[in-house]
């Protein structure tokens, strides 16, 4: 009876599902673990744990597995590199916009009157309320991009 209970516990443990999680930390490093990351940005991977004994592996299948693993690692590396490039481009775009809007604000602060050109190319000066509204909008853009 004790042996039957022991065999039952062993086989049920072998057929259980073990969670494997994959996540990328703030430095761009890929991690794997049996528990999800604290930030909640983990991806659960499907891992078949029903077979406890692996079949004999020949050199060709070992090489195929190695190649698949290398391809997966390369895809992960390229994905991370693309994400870094996107972030860098966004950062550069924000820097350019920040400089542009700050320069506009300096002009607003120094100018006695702010104008726009009408269809004929004539200056149409803003009223005090229009200038105040425009200045608020400009400050909001500076806060967003700087």
Describe the structure.
The chain is built from three helices and five strands; from the N terminus they run αβββαββα. The N and C termini lie far apart (73 Å). The chain has helices spanning 2-14, 59-110, 128-145; strands at 20-24, 30-33, 43-45, 115-117, 123-125. The strands form two sheets. It has a three-stranded antiparallel beta sheet with strand order 2-1-3, with no helix packed on it. The protein has a two-stranded antiparallel ribbon with strand order 4-5.
Helix-strand pattern: HEEEHEEH
Based on Cα principal axes, name the global outline.
elongated
Largest sheet: 3 strands, antiparallel
The whole-number mean of residue pLDDT values reads: 80
With strands numbered from the N-terminus, the spatial order across the biggest sheet is 2-1-3
- Roughly what percent helix? 55-70%
> What is the radius of gyration computed over CA atoms, rounded to a whole number of angstroms?
31 Å
Extended strand count: 5
Low-confidence segments: none
| Strand residue percentage | 5-15%
Q: If helices are DSSP runs of H or I spanning 4 or more residues, what is the number of helices?
A: 3
Structural class: alpha+beta
Instruction: Tell me the distance between the termini.
Output: 73 Å
